[in-house]
Amino acid sequence: MYRFHLGRSSLISSKAIFAGISLKIILSCYVRFASALAWHALQTARALHERGHEVMLFCQSGSPLAEWTRSDSFRTDDSMNLNRSNPKEIILGIRRFRRAIREFQPDLLNPHCPPGHSYFAIARKLERSRIPIVRTVAEPRFPKNNAVNRYLHE
Predict the structure, then answer these.
(1) 68 lies in some domain
(2) CATH classification of the domain holding 138
(3) 52, 28 contact by CB (below 8 A)
(4) DSSP 100
(5) Is the pLDDT at 6 greater than 50, yes or no?
(6) Residue 1 pLDDT > 70, yes or no?
(7) Distances (CA, A) of 143 to 36, 63, 76, 123
(8) Contacts of residue 153, Cβ cutoff 8 Å, sequence gap at least 6
């Protein structure tokens, strides 16, 4: 049995994922183009959904990933473009993620790239939630060691 450390206070056993326990999982992948990262996020969402988990996938508006998910039966949200630095769009994005956390009530957050990770961390902190964030790292851009990141990930 594998154990995944998901923060200070929570451990999720691989048995939970494969033993018939249904989890609610939000995934995110904000890439503008077709890539291995986008394909991996899609295949992960499909596999989790096929195994009985309730899945929601956030993806970049107008992206190939958004098009690929049109025929899938799990929930998707491609209403945002998180790759912009417009303060209004950032605030709207954080609100959307907070609403998803409140309404969907996930057991796990799984971002596949930096924008989703940042938005999940901020929304989770504002909601005073302890939902684990499990980051799928497909590129070597590590979070910077600064006061904001230390606050968000404590």
Answers:
(1) yes
(2) 3.40.50.2000
(3) no
(4) H
(5) no
(6) no
(7) 21, 24, 26, 17
(8) 121, 143
